[in-house]
Amino acid sequence: MGGLQKKKFESGAATNYITRNRARKKLQLSLPDFRRLCILKGIYPHEPKHKKKVNKGSTAPRTFYLLKDIRFLLHEPIVGKFREYKIFVRKLKKAYGKTEWSAVERLKENKPTYKLDHIVKERYPSFIDALRDIDDALCMCFLFSTFARTGKCHVQTIQLCRRLTVEWMNYVITSRALRKVFISIKGIYYQAEVMGQPITWLVPYQFAHDHPTDVDYRVMATFTELYTTLLGFVNFRLYLSLNLLYPPKIHDTDIFLVPVQKLSALSASLARVVTSTEEEEAQIDLFPTEDENMEMMEEKEKEKKLLEAQMKIFEGLKFFLNREVPRESLAFIIRCFGGEVSWDKSVSIGSTYEMMDETITHHIVDRPNVDKRYINRYYIQPQWVYDCVNAKMLVPVEDYFIGVTLPPHLSPFVEEREGDYVPPEKLKILALQRGESSGVDSLEEEEEEEEEEDEEEEDNDEEDQVEENKLKKMEEQRSQGKSLQVKVTPGKVKMENPVRLEQEEKAEEKRLAIMMMKKKEKYLYDKIMFGKKRKVREVSFLKSRNKYSLLWERLCSRRS
Amino acid sequence: MAAARRLKRVAASQPGFLTLKSNSTDLLSGRRKRVNKNKKKSWNKHSDINDVEEFLNDIRHQERTTGGLLAEKSDDSLFFLDVGQPLNDAQRDKPVEEEPVERKKRKGRVSRPLRIDLILQQDSLIPPPKDVLAYQQPNAKKLRRSAQRLEQLAAKGVVPRKQRQLLNRRPVERTTLKAVTEANNNPNRDYYDIWGQELKDLADPWYLQQTCKKRVQRPERLNEKPSTLPAVEVIAPGGSYNPEFFSHQALLKAAHEVEVVKQKEEDKIKRQLAVNKEDTATMETIFHEELEGLVEEEKEEEEELKDEEDVAVGAIVLAQKKTEKQRKKERALKIKEQRRMANRRMNNRQQQLFQLRSIKASIKQQDQKTKVNQIRRKAKQEAEKSQPRRLGKLKFQPQDMEVQLSGELAESLRQLKPEGSILKDRFKSLQKRNLIEPRERAKFKRRHKLKYVEKRAFKEIT
């Protein structure tokens, strides 16, 4: 056999992939430039299924890109800009070396730059695509805006990030889109719902932190470059959707260009495009579609109304922030839900009223004690605001007074399933939401109720308890010398509870079905039930430990 | 020709110039050709005016450089009397001036010109030549006339047309192109509605495609995300600044598990490297090892040797040639074997008819196995989608869990100490989602080894 023999590694997987260095040479770019290009265009390395085939027999760890991706990169116009920049740097170095200052000036004036608008449009062809990816962009922009302006990364980038984040926060305030907040040890997590998309982002604390050395700043800066462009366009579109002016201007002022500091005060409302008389929107009659019926429509209306009510929990309340609380975070949240907020003048600009104002309803303090106290306002710790937001209602203020041990701050991002441990604080809040009075008795009742609802099989512990109670009673009676009253009495009509009857029937059917199962199936069923029972046992164990050990533990941890 | 001859003559008259024709004997002998000095022709060639020329040159040189003949200069301008350091102030007050120019001395100011400037002054008697061309202007008169006319008109108030147009024209607003305004990270950059207007293609799509001006479409494959993980992963509820007891314990337990795994690995390595103390070599064991085989008795040695030889002999067997009988036998055996196997195979196939049920059962089992394997493989693939892939030389190192111990929990928001760095968290998240490959900082590698040389001073000491 001679002639056209099929050689190894010439077709198939081996030709679909290309190593990083080969790709770089094909594009004629340096390695940092290649990396930047890949990040900007969204080309990621792939791990092939059969590494040995692609690597032509060796198993050395290499970075592979798809060949078609690299071929697509060849058509990108900013590749030419990168090359121009490289030549610009070379010429500038020469001019510096020869101390030709006029040449240096001339070169600097004509520095090559590139724009990323077409890349954003290409990667996110529709607005909703961009909204889906805005999580990452927000986190990065918030992170960069907290950097110190030392010059390690461009100061302009930091300023741009600050401006974009302030614009975003103003949009969320105006559209009342905030839903959840969580204070963690890392930073503050926010979740907002914009155009049906839940968007989560993380804001670091404002304290200065030293930067870790093993983070590649160039990569982060490239990501930020792309994300600032994206976020700017998204902001524009969002402002447009709300009929607001972009770049944002403050309502009722004549200042043309509002500086970022004034906007970052977050205390003023934004100006709209149409400032003439507002027309009343006619209520559109909503007709149900074929799939839905009137019931579902009503439910949706109810939900909508509930949502609207939840967005206005702080309406009518006036807050004052003391100097030591995180101003921006609290101002953002309070304004998102309709409240008015102000702070001391020395903290930042934009404070609307002073501490001496009589109409302030809540004063947020984080110190052990306050010197002067006004009568008609509540002095509370900042966690109250966050907990109100998460509970979607005004939580009782008593637990948050100054000096009081705070209840734990629960995470709103956790969704408890059936049978999981639900902390008692959360149960209390659920009770409040349902409108029942918060008392210790009702709490116990609710616990029992929930247990019954969750599990069809009753707890053995509970049954034992009931029996024990009975025995206790009998013993008491015997000890008191009374004989047990056992005699024939006229029968009482037992009221048959239909609901209870139904439940009993269902339980009977279930029992029969279990008896009729085959051995194999029964074996599996037993296994599943064992697992469930284990969970229930754990939950009840935790609950029983709850009352005493919890208090003790919390005291210990707080004091230390 | 006449010019050439003149040149030759002039050259020949230069002192020390040797012509080709003349030979040394001619000059040295003293015999001279008789020349008629009365003719103009022979004046140039044979008259010696060098001494006069020298004298005149000298005078000209003096005039050029020092401004006049040295003989005519005064003594003061050429020499000065060096009397040394003045002893007291009174003597210093005497005007000891070298330069012809006297200047008033002011307190703290250097009013006297520098000596070097004076030396380099132009003081030759010969004035520099006048550049005649500079004074020559062909239309000087015309220009003078027109300038006068313009002055008269300006005095009257009439402005010529060209100037009027110049004044009317608005000044050009030059937007100085600064690279800062166009850069990507300009803080005041403008944004526009990028998704709003659907720009119509100004030109025909066919034309754009043929002239390679059409933008290449982005492949659909690139719109998928490389990982199914969400961009922002919220920390567990135990990571709250004021956590609930049990969730905090759960988080601590998770962190504890990680630590336990790490500890186990370390222990494993320690165990593998552990050495039994008794196995270390002592002087005694070394001594014994060295003496091994040296102090044995000879009998034992012989016996050992014999055994080896027997074994060796048994191994070598010479093969003998096969006879015809043996070959025929082998062939018959082979055929018999083949026939037996064929029969057996046929039998098997016939019997399989009765084994249908068990065959079906075994096929079912295999099917089930393959199905189970398929499901498992699919589940594994789905799980892998959310895991960080191996994209390069380094493996993905997940960061340490952010946990605050019970003793570190803050009492209030004011006293909260943030844990972990969000920058690092974002960087690791990018790596986890397969957007970038894990990298470590590039080390500084030297191309050539450093040479350490002792200084000579130290060499003497050491």
Automatic annotation (TrEMBL), chain A:
InterPro entries: BRCT_dom, BRCT_dom_sf, PES. It comes from the Eukaryota. Signal peptide: none annotated. Residues 290-317 form a coiled coil. GO terms for cellular component: nucleoplasm; PeBoW complex; preribosome, large subunit precursor. GO terms for molecular function: ribonucleoprotein complex binding; RNA binding. HAMAP family: Pescadillo. Belongs to the pescadillo family. This is Pescadillo homolog. It comes from Gouania willdenowi (Blunt-snouted clingfish). The lineage of its organism: Eukaryota, Metazoa, Chordata, Craniata, Vertebrata.
Automatic annotation (TrEMBL), chain B:
Residues 89-108 are annotated as: Disordered. GO terms for cellular component: nucleolus; nucleoplasm. Residues 288-338 form a coiled coil. It comes from the Eukaryota. InterPro entries: Nop53/GLTSCR2 (IPR011687). Its main location: nucleus. GO terms for molecular function: 5S rRNA binding. Keywords: Coiled coil, Nucleus, Ribosome biogenesis. GO terms for biological process: ribosomal large subunit assembly; rRNA processing. It is found in: Nucleus, Nucleolus; Nucleus, Nucleoplasm. May play a role in ribosome biogenesis. Belongs to the NOP53 family. This is Ribosome biogenesis protein NOP53.
